[in-house]
Amino acid sequence: VNLAVFASGTGSNLQRLLDLSRLDELGGGKVVLVVSDKPGCRALERAAAAGVATFAFYPKAYPDKPAYEREILDRLREHRIDWIVLAGYMRLVGEVLLQAYGGRIINLHPSLLPNFPGKDAIGQALAAGVSRTGVTVHFVDEGMDTGPAIAQEAVPVDPGDDADSLAVKIHAVEHRLLPEVVRALCRGEVWLDNGQVHWRPQG
Ligand code: GRF
User: Quick check: helix, strand or coil at residue 62?
Assistant: First the structure.
């Protein structure tokens, strides 16, 4: 099962997937391509260090989103990608990729969706004064963080928490939850049917 991971920044979640891929602990999944809209970002360095192919592009070098997504699609096909994992990819996926990979794209988001979609979900949660937030892994549709949830886990917001301390707790959960979901997808234990998420009963 060939995986492409899309990332725009640090890539700590990407690193987890790269490590587990190398150890063959992703349910048969292999990270074979890393795509980034931020040439030079840390995530791309991590991919290179792991010996994984990369495709980096400047969105502004293209006339529009369909144009760069068609180029991404060429690379995905070249590498026979089965699943796309968005791990800190800071762009909305457009029609070209959704047409080709609908139901085979997942995203990681640092809140309990539908709460706090979009940018700076951690800051949004702190500003709202909630006592718990969390992590969601969901299928991607045309909306901003709106697709059906596959897995969610709560993280408490403690009285002394600031953006940094809360981010540390959220990342710890992400680093466990995202690989769990990717493993389940690769094993065919979870799938999307008619907009509904199904899990194969365990046992
Ligand atoms: C994660 O918190 C993820 O939920 C959000 O972007 C962050 C990426 O972190 N979409 P990293 O680049 O994996 O360290």
Answer: coil
CA pair distance 184, 14, nearest whole angstrom: 17
Q: Are 43 and 200 in contact (CB under 8 A)?
A: no
ipTM of the complex: 0.95
- Cβ < 6 A, ligand 1 pocket: 7, 9-14, 87-88, 108-110, 174
The model's pTM: 0.96
CATH code at 100? Answer: 3.40.50.170
Expressed as residue numbers, the domain containing 83 is: 2-192
Query: Which of helix, strand or coil describes residue 25?
Result: coil
Q: Is residue 94 part of a domain?
A: yes
Residues 6+ apart with CB under 8 A from 160: none
How many helices (H) and strands (E) in the chain? 6, 9
Residue 144 annotated as part of some ligand binding site: no
**Tokens at residue 141, please?**
């549709």
